[in-house]
Write a structure and sequence with these properties.
mainly alpha, about 0% strand, 11 helices, about 260 residues
């Protein structure tokens, strides 16, 4: 909370240290888990559960709130926006793929399904079905991942309340921190459910709005951007269709 309160410079410096530590933890998990991976766990595929992790995966890639912060941090070096966005998009994918391969190889889908709903988290599963050291490292990874996400999204939400809705900064901070704290204290839902809803519904709506704003900016924009892309109407329309289906699917899972 204090870091978000201090603003973008404190958040940026803290995230740099935390992400460096996160990368080190992923490397250590990979080293300690090599001899525990069971190749048999990589066989088989259940098509009926193809879209099960959709919301969680989309949540994991919700990096758009951090782009305005990158713009601010770069200062006079706005020409590096393209490289910063590409690096910030590609590196998480590589980390997610490596970590997923490790988790599936060590735990396996069948063992994962035996856990309680609130325990069906990769880092928790790893602590149950592997060496205690891996469990400790996995939980450190979980804390670092949630902390860095909270810093980025928390700061972005504070700015939305403060700059867009013209609320005093203290009120913006209270609104940002109180809702997740309330949900956690009263255990209103499971962790995975929160990620699924946030990713599929909020992330889907966010993706749709970004595409529509992009098309509008290409049509009416009056400034030269740091770098530019073509409108890509077909690709954008396909993504909007996917986001709409994702929102419908997630709401259907909740209410039916």
């Amino acid at each position: 909370m204090f870091i978000v309160y201090k603003g973008i410079k404190a958040t940026g410096r803290t995230e740099l240290y935390l992400i460096s530590l996160l990368l080190a933890v992923v490397v250590l998990i990979g080293i300690f888990s090599i001899n525990k991976i069971n190749s048999a766990f990589y066989t088989g595929f259940n098509w009926q559960q193809l879209f099960l992790p959709y919301g969680v995966i989309l949540f994991a890639f919700m990096g758009s709130p951090g782009i305005p912060e990158v713009h601010q941090v770069l200062g006079k070096h706005k020409n590096l926006m393209r490289e910063a966005i590409l690096a910030g998009s590609v590196l998480p994918i590589i980390l997610y793929v490596i970590f997923t391969i490790i988790i599936v190889g060590v735990v396996g889908a069948d063992n994962f399904s035996l856990l309680e709903p609130n325990q069906r988290i990769a880092t928790v599963a790893l602590s149950f079905y592997s060496h205690p050291i891996l469990g400790i490292l996995a939980n450190i990874l979980a804390v670092l991942s949630m902390f860095t996400s909270f810093l980025t999204l928390g700061l972005a939400l504070v700015q939305v309340y403060h700059y867009d809705f013209k609320l005093p900064r203290n009120i913006a901070l209270i609104l940002t921190f109180s809702i997740p704290l309330f949900i956690a204290l009263f255990k209103l839902t499971t962790f995975i459910t929160i990620l699924g809803i946030t990713g599929a519904v909020a992330g889907g709506l966010d993706g749709i709005l970004i595409i529509l704003m992009y098309w509008k900016a290409k049509l009416l924009g009056d400034r030269k951007p740091e770098y530019s892309l073509k409108p890509h109407k077909l690709l954008g329309s396909a993504l909007i269709f996917m986001f709409v289906l994702g929102v419908i699917y997630q709401l259907w899972k909740i209410f039916l």
